[in-house]
Design goal:
Helix content is 42%, strand content 16%. By secondary structure, it is of the alpha/beta class. It is globular, with a radius of gyration of 20 Å. It binds nicotinamide-adenine-dinucleotide.
Length: 349
């Protein structure tokens, strides 16, 4: 199986590349290598005979057309996106360009290519769009998102992802392209760009800085280990019916403060502070993110039932593995850490 995979130099994309190659597939990664694209995330697979890489922008229609023509994929996994909510507050335009326009360009090129396939290949083709649970908005204390939850995005990032989901469904309904959408919860694990919560905490702790937590720290997220997510995506590519949406969650609701506590606990075990104080003593509550969603939780019953998926990694062991990975892989993060630990996304009066 040949997968054209966008955003493969990113956090989840690179995990999916490893998963698909391990399953015996071939992969063409298309990635623009924005600030968030880290080529070193693909070092492990660079020499694999089934792996290819194309540096290109998904908004570049001729480049996408050539990629489809040359690689002749059996399916598409679309992960390329601008992904950091705080950056979407500082500058929404690039989120609309990549997440909305880029998705439309890719859909158009996939459709043109798909129409030229013979009937068996057309039936087997899938366009898997990787989206987020953030399109559903914010939950109260009760309930979980599932495939029937109405859309209610509240940040420029989630609004751009919601728009892209609507485009993907429209290309499925109107043109018959066999699309599948995944709405997943907060991923964490090795190779996540340092600006996201868990790597920010680890890397700031290592350099003796305070550990900032937004607002009261009681925002709840459903934490999904990235390798569990990659396995879910591989299963969707293999077995999801056209037109299906699956919600994917780790069944691990934790507040941001609880996650910070887990990170600090793992650091206390693996890299205690020189002064003997527990790492959690550096936690500081800071001004909240504007429009910060309070709680996300995902009901994954459908993908469990239809595709036999379930998460294998508990959040406790996953966070410990993640902390250990960052401690052992300074060569991965030191070239990209630069200003990514600084605060973004505050609206100035
Ligand atoms: P990431 O920011 O780590 O990686 C994004 C990748 O896309 C980078 O390699 C970047 O260079 C590439 N890219 C950006 N713009 C591009 C363009 N115009 N053309 C080609 N490549 C481009 O993101 P991630 O965390 O791995 O997320 C992957 C996907 O999963 C995204 O679509 C995101 O919305 C979705 N998602 C992420 C999470 C999460 O917790 N990380 C949760 C739910 C959904």
């Amino acid at each position: 199986m040949r997968t054209l995979l966008t955003g493969g130099a990113g956090f989840i994309g690179s995990a999916l590349v490893r998963e698909l190659l391990a399953r015996g597939g071939e992969v063409l990664v298309i990635d623009k290598l924005t600030y968030a694209g880290v080529e070193a995330s693909l070092d492990e697979v660079a020499a694999h005979p089934g792996f290819r890489f194309l540096k290109a922008d998904i908004c570049d229609a001729p480049a996408m057309a050539a990629a489809f023509r040359d690689f002749r994929p059996d399916r598409v996994a679309h992960l390329a996106a601008e992904t950091h909510v705080d950056r979407s507050i500082d500058g929404p335009a690039v989120f609309i360009q990549t997440n909305v326009v880029g998705t439309q360009v890719l859909l158009d090129q996939a459709l043109a290519y798909w129409r030229g396939l013979e009937s068996r290949a057309r039936a087997a083709f899938r366009f898997l769009h990787v989206s987020t649970d953030e399109v559903f908005g914010s939950l109260g204390a009760e309930g979980r998102f599932d495939e029937t939850t109405p859309y209610d995005p509240r940040s420029p990032y989630s609004a751009s992802k919601a728009a892209s989901d609507h485009l993907v469904r429209a290309w499925g309904q109107t043109f018959g392209l066999p699309v599948v959408i995944s709405n997943c919860s907060n991923n964490y694990g090795p190779r996540q760009f340092p600006e996201k919560l868990i790597p920010t905490l680890i890397l700031r702790a290592l350099s003796g800085q305070s550990l900032p937590i937004y607002g009261d720290g009681l925002q709840v997220r459903d934490w999904l280990f990235v390798e569990d997510h990659a396995r879910a995506l591989a299963l969707m590519l293999e077995a999801a019916e056209p037109g299906r949406t699956y919600c994917v969650g780790g069944d691990a609701e934790r507040t941001n403060l609880q996650v910070a506590g887990m990170v600090c606990g793992a650091l206390d075990d693996l890299r205690p502070r020189d002064d003997g104080a527990p790492h959690r003593s550096a936690i500081r509550l800071v001004e909240d993110r504007p429009g910060h969603d309070r709680r996300y939780a995902v009901d994954s019953a459908a993908i469990r039932r239809d595709l036999g998926w379930r998460p294998h990694v508990s959040v406790e062991s996953g966070v410990a593995r993640t902390v250990a990975w960052y401690l052992q892989n300074e060569g991965w993060w030191s070239p990209v850490v630069a200003d990514s630990l600084e605060r973004r996304g505050l609206i100035k009066a």
